[in-house]
Amino acid sequence: MKTILQQLQQVHDRIAAAAHACDRLPEQVHLLAVSKTKPIAAIEAAYQGGQRQFGENYVQEAIEKIQALSATHLDIEWHLIGPLQSNKTKVVAEYFAWVQTLDRLKIAERLSQQRPAHLAPLQVCLQVNISREANKSGILPEEVAALADKVAQLPQLNLRGLMAIPEATEDTEKLKSQLLELQQLFDRMAQIYSSLDTLSVGMSNDLEIAVACGSTLVRVGTAIFGTRPT
Questions:
Q1: Cα–Cα distance between 29 and 18 in angstroms, integer?
Q2: pLDDT tens across 33-71, in order?
Q3: How far, in whole angstroms, is CA 215 from its chain's centroid?
Q4: CA 24 – CA 230 distance, rounded (Å)
Q5: Longest dimension (CA), the chain
Q6: What is the rounded distance in angstroms from the CA atom of residue 108 to the CA atom of residue 150?
Q7: How many CB atoms lie within 10 A of CB 74?
Q8: Domain 4-225 classified CATH 3.10.25.10?
C-alpha cells in the first residue's frame, strides 16, 4: 500500500509530465492538497513531503484542523474550496488565506469588512459555473466581469483568479471545450486586472486536461490521500 508521501510524489510527477506535454514549465502549476474529511495526521504527512497549500470544503471541520495545527507552527496556507454561507464569513475571514468559491457580492463585502486589519488581504477567486448546470454553484461566464469589478474595489480582498468545477463527464472533448472557454475568460480578465494569476481547475481524474487548458492550480485529494469515507 502506497504512503501519502509516495502518492504526493506521483501527483507531482503527473503535473510535471502534463506541463511538459503542452510546453509549459511544471512550476507554473501549483498543487492544492484537498484534505477535507482527512485526519490531521494525513495533513502532517503531506506537509512532511513539502506540501504547504491545503484546501478544505467544510468551514467547521477546517477551523478545528487549523486551530489544532496552529499550535505546531506549521506554515500552511489554507484555502476554502467549498460553499460559503453568510453566517460563516467572519470565521473564514479570520482563519483562511484564500477563498476560491466567491460567487456573491454580499459574501465578498462581508469578507472584506470582517478581515482582521493585521492580516494581509484575503486572496479570492470567483467561482464560475462553466458547465452552466442548474444545480451547481458559481456565476455564469457572462456574469464574471460585473462581479470582478465590484470585488476588485473591496479593500481587504485581493482578486487572484477564477475557479471552476467542470461537468463530471467522460466525454473528453466536452470537458476540454468547457476548460478552453474558462481559459479564454481568464485570459480576458487578466488583461483587465494585473492581480489575476490563478486559474484553479483540475482534480485527481482530469488534471492532465486541465493543465493543457491553462490551469495554474490543481485541486487534488483522492490521488494524494486515498478515497474519502462514505
A1: 10
A2: 999 999 999 999 999 999 999 999 999 999 999 999 988
A3: 11
A4: 37
A5: 50
A6: 9
A7: 13
A8: no
